UniProtKB/TrEMBL annotation:
Basic and acidic residues bias locations: 140-155
Alphabetical list of InterPro entries matching this protein: DEATH-like_dom_sf, Death_dom
Region (Disordered): 140-161
Full protein name: Death domain-containing protein
PROSITE patterns, per database record: DEATH_DOMAIN
Superkingdom of origin organism: Eukaryota
Annotated ranges, domain Death: 169-254
Amino acid sequence: MAAALLQDRTVYEQLCKDYLNLKTLACGCCHSPESVQRCKDALRLEINSARKLGRMQALEEVLALLEARNALSMIKVELLARLEPVVKDEEFGQRLACFKVLLKRSFTSVRRYHLEDLRHRDRRTLLEKELEQVKLADPEVIRKPETPAKTEKSKQTPNNDSIAYQACRQDIFDLLTREISRDWNALGRNLQLSSASLYTIEERHPRDVRARVQAVLEQAEADHGMGAGFVQVLGEALLSTRRKDLKRKVEKMLS
């Protein structure tokens, strides 16, 4: 048993190295502006943002964004296969084919080790997460804090916020599951869910985006508490996901 586990771990570590080599090889073959543009065109649907694509000058940036969205990883290499006609490199094609064969042969154990490593990587302090978000944040998303509007209405206490939230919780969830579609992953990251959690949700609901949104909300609610704390985090997450309209609707429901 121990020998089998050791062998599985060895295969996983080798696939990690092979995956990095595949990315390096692809990026090395696509260094000219023309080849980078062809790669961006091949992956345009997954990026789903002409503005972000326009800012990217290297294939490394494109692959990094896809990995951040959990669209690309060492156990999800379909997008690398899509680059094969663009890269036009025999060695890349051969290595990718060998990688896919070995991955298929040991997928269960490799996936387990991969998720364990993701969970370990995501055990970071809240401060580290906040610093990383600042570094990776889109400059257009960073806005000056809004000045609170003067109002004669007294502020709600946390207890009142919790009661209001519980009263319209299902309506809020129904609204967000209807309105959030492809942005479910971004919302999950902004709600501080780990990459491993988002990957698990995607695997559990491969064709149902609404179910993914529901699962993201339920897990974030479990992490932050069913009340004022979650309401505040949800509002900030909707802003970061560029859905200020939904934040206003949620606030209106709670008022």
